[in-house]
Amino acid sequence: MERQVGDASFLAGFGDEPIHLFKFNESWKISSYLFCFIAGPYSFITSDEETIKGYKYPLRLACRKSLTKYLEKAKEEMFHNTKCAIEYYEKIFQTPYPFDKLDQAFVPDYECGAMENVGLILYNDQLIEREELFS
What we know:
Strands 1-2-3-5-4 form a five-stranded mixed sheet, with helices on one face. Helix content is about 25%, strand content about 20%. The longest helix is centred in the middle third of the chain and has 26 residues, at about 70-95. By secondary structure, it is α/β, with parallel strands linked by helices.
């Protein structure tokens, strides 16, 4: 039986959790193995620096809420390195970054160390440094 979003029995499965419906713009035609999205109670982190906030491609980090405090410590370095990498490859390949944004998500139980997808790079969240002193 096909369930619609308005179907009460379908919605009851979510309990008191709010439900969000997202509509995406039509994307470029890409290979199916490059498509990726994440779902869950992720915290999204943005930069506090003007050079990153105003960058031509929005950059965000995502992780489980319990890891936010650790990722916050490394965010500006990660955003700076990402911006530098994009600009480096744009210069080397003499073509602009072809997508509208670049998110980086740290996900639990991810078998690979990392995977590059269109507009979203996935990392195993074990890569987030949890010690007070790190570089």
